[in-house]
Amino acid sequence: MIHSPSQKTIPTFFGHLDGGYAGLVDYMDSENGIFGWLLGIASPDQPTSWTLLAGDVVLLTGLADEVRDDISLALGRTARCTFRIAWDRVTEQARSAIRDVPGTDPLRVIVSATGEELEWSAKRPTVQWLRDHVFKRVSAKPTTELTALPVAEVAVVTPQAAPPSSRSLLVGRHVGAVRSAPCVLVVPSEQGAIECGVGIDHAVLADGCLVLTGWLVEAIALEARSVDGALLPSRQELFERVDVADAYSISRDDVRGFLLVVQCGLQANTIKLVCPDQQQLSLTLQLPPIAKSEAMVQLVKEQVPRLGALLSATAHSLRWASQIIPFLQDPPPLFNAARGHIEQAKAAFSVGGVVAGWALSVPTCEILVATSSGIVRFVCDAIRWHRDDITQAFEKDFGAFSMDAGFFLALPGKLHATDRLQLIAVEGNHAYTIARGDWTAAPQEPASFAKWAFDFPLPPDRFQAGLSSHIVPVVGGLIEARNNAFHRLEPEIATFGQPPANPLCSIIIPLYGRTDFLQQQLMEFSDDPFVRKQAEIVFVIDDPRIRGTILSEAAMLSQVYELGFTVIDGRVNRGYSGANNLGAKHAKGRTLLFLNSDVFPTRPGWLQKMLKPLAENPHLGIVGGRLLYCNGSIQHDGMMFEWDNALRGYLNKHPGSGMEPPPPRPKPLERIAVTGACMLMAAEVFAEVGGFDEQFLIGDFEDSDLCLKVRRSGREIVCVEDISLVHLERQSFSGLGSGGFRQRVVFYNLHRHQTAWGPTIDGLLQDPRFRPAA
Amino acid sequence: MKVLVIAHAHPDFSVGGGEIAAYNLYTTLRDDPDTTGALFLARSDLGTIGHGAIVSRRPGEYLWRQDMGDWFKLRTANALAVVKDFRAFLRQHRPDTIYVHHYAHMGLELLREIRHTLPQAKLVLTLHEYTAICNHQGQMVKTDSTKRLCYRASLEDCHLCFPAVSPESFWLRRRYIEKHFQVVDMFVSPSEFLRQRYIDWGIPADRITVIENGQPSFARDIPRRGQPGIQKIGFFGQVTEYKGVDILLKGLSLVPPDARRDLRVEIHGANLEQRSEAFQVLIKELRAPLLEEGCLRWVGGYERTELFRKMSQVDWVVIPSIWWENSPMVIQEALVCGKPVLAADIGGMAEKVRDGVTGLHFEARNPFDLAEKLTMIAQGYVPAGVEQPDLLKSVSYAESARLYKRLVASLT
């Protein structure tokens, strides 16, 4: 139902114009509910979640998800933004909760994610209005509530005098025709009775998940297949249907009700339904349109005795799960199949959250973590680890099943501030809420979030195995969100002295932590006539703490060394990739030399020697350089990949590291990759391959990743040996250390690198040019 | 020849060996007929001079307000004063020969500035200790409680002495110093021992030579007073942990009592009260019985003008330092006074005192060996050089200046 927006009122805007929300409550009445629209300004085609409050009490949450023509027209793109707040969805619990709210308090609609409130174009109704006009009327209607009837009671329901809903369609059967629910297909016996048959009462589709209810006569299973015959994932539950048996006068033992949940996907229009034990019972079912919430609620209410099955079969569907969860109840006193507790739950609302706690159950009983908005994940998919405290406490009751009780589980996706969490035990058809929890806000900074998340005592192998499901979605999302914010930040650029106007090369140096390197690099540069004349020196401040010192030193040092250079203040810590990408963006040189701030040339002429092969060989992508530790041994002479059994991935290695440098060869040598501490390439190639990957956590592998991207573009990589540069990297840091945060960061980054490049590296290592010497 | 002598202090305000040597080099060259102009520029910390400014002290002599910003890398506190005030000074006077005595308190940067502004000028740097080599106040003694002697600097060893400073930071320190030393034409060391230490560190042997600091001339006619038959042995200098007064007192108490009756050790030293409490307690415990016995006199500090008079009253001068020393002033002064020296057998002391000729060596840090040598002295031992005045002598100001002049002439 679409209503025109009010002519009088301007919509409410929240936040900033490229990332906030806009919306308006247009219309409301006691019959139909409240109508309006709400959209995310950056992504109007994505549904946005709203929450209705009476005073401060949450009544309802839902999605503004219907396309609205007038707004779409105004925006020039599809706007899925209309919402309708229907009264029949308000739970009994919420109704009783607002009894204590003052009647004069207004109703409020807020953006769930931010808590910002929408304006109303009509006069805003009060809580009293809700009590007088809405709840009274709803409660006066005959009840359709079926919440949590014990299963046993269903069996003693008196047979209905009237036939079930599908009775009237008995006569209209056409084998093979495309049908839609409700429908019935029966095979009559010679005596005119029913030999076998299938009746479909309801077919409700949401999120590609079709829920069918109905009955079977003389058949015990119903298979769902796609139009081309492939078996579709489905789950079936059978139960008694005395009403059908009595209505058709069939033995109660021959009739079974069924609940069938079919994952038919988002594209299908029809599916085939077949009884494998009664082949003549097969039909092609026209899928219903995507269901409205009312239809879903109706079905859920009817299936309350089977909520467990329904929930575990529809768990991946936000819409289904969110409709089912409000009907769950606490376990009965004697329920002893599962225990659990939510200890910590941190959410970064834009990207997802992580829930940690403990859970244990006996076999066949499953435990799920769910948010009230319908995000559900199975605890068996979580990263699990052994907890002595839980085993000691529950070993008596749970025996061997008290092991591995700890769980760490990510819930990726947009979360809502008003969401609550619960731990749900599903045992057969039963589902109970066994624990509840609330989100706390997680650090938005990826490394801080990772510090919290990596602090759980997850065994290394399980941490690795669970990375892609439970770490990457949240940490990766935070990195992406942070990078997007960083890209919008305008850097401050200061020029000192007079840098060359048309530089051959831009030397890009990110500065982090230490300020004393600046002077010593400038001192070395100032003694190199080629650098003075041909190179643009670009320092990128990647650490707001050192900004003041660097800028004042820069002003002084440019006078002392009579050297022109540029300082870009990135204003935030972007890490190796972000800082270098920022430097490259503002660099003027035709070539770019990425240089660490702790690399010091000790003889002039090094830059010329590195530029020469690049100028001579058009197939060359990157030129690296030999680097020495401060004790004179090799720090880098080209990079190699080495398989690590423990980490299950390739690590970047520096062959010959720590050894005495072999005599330098005058000709540059082809290498598989080179270090990012000193890396030269054409600005054009850098742009073509997209620069450094900014999705690594804190930093690692960005250089090899860039090298592999350049290789993929068909270019080669060499290392120049007859130059003299010292890299003050600590030799002691080349190992991974014994664990802790740093090791987890390596796991994280290695996973990203391995996923992108594992097979490529496998291939490169077969290349005789790069095979390590025996 | 237009000469500029730069020193880390002006003798008007400070009387250390380095600044006195520098000032005397200046006055001697100023009065030399070959010199067309001579300037003396001394660093000063006078509050009345603006930071970085160069002001006239008297004709030909200037004071430069400079300070250290970073003792680790020996960086100046005021680099802009080097490229502004000091550059203007150089451009105005355009000396062709520049002698720099020391860089402490001024910073190394002036060396590169001289080379930058006056590329043709001859630049000579006189080294007065091991500061460039060793971050431990240039002592080349380990920082731990044993105060072991250090034989050679390395990034790892220096890091072990200063665990908070990484080997990489020591590389940066060394590189910074090296970059400034690169522009120096010739280094001068007052001792061969110090020269060798700098050669080991990295200065090419042909770029560093030895010229002893000049000493004033002194009439040796002050009569030696006191009890005949008693050997008076004088310690002159600061009473610090590195000067070995504790070794001297231990050695003295180990001398057999009958020999000790013929000895009188005098401590002409000040500033004990500024030392660590443990050191003060040690000295006080060691000296109490000796003072009571009468073989030790704790004289205390002295004015520089009193030195030669006081020194002429002793029979021996003792230098028991536990660190290497360079070319200790006290040895040169003893030579001026014609006194033999009882010296620890290491570093600059061993070099400047010829064992059995101009004095006597004892094993450094070994009070037992020192006791033996003190016993020899009590028994009337006299080294050969005491009777030969040409052996017991030092280099004069004029001689030292002549050597500097000859050195510069040899530079192409």
From TrEMBL, chain B:
Entry's EC annotation: 2.4.-.-
Record organism: Tianweitania sediminis
Enzyme class: transferase
Gene3D superfamilies: Glycogen Phosphorylase B
Keywords: Glycosyltransferase, Transferase
Protein name: Glycosyltransferase
Top-level taxonomy: Bacteria, Pseudomonadati, Pseudomonadota, Alphaproteobacteria, Hyphomicrobiales
InterPro entries: Glyco_trans_1, Glyco_trans_4-like_N
Pfam families, A to Z: Glyco_transf_4, Glycos_transf_1
Domain of life: Bacteria
A GO MF term: glycosyltransferase activity
All residue ranges annotated as the Glycosyltransferase subfamily 4-like N-terminal domain in the record: 73-214
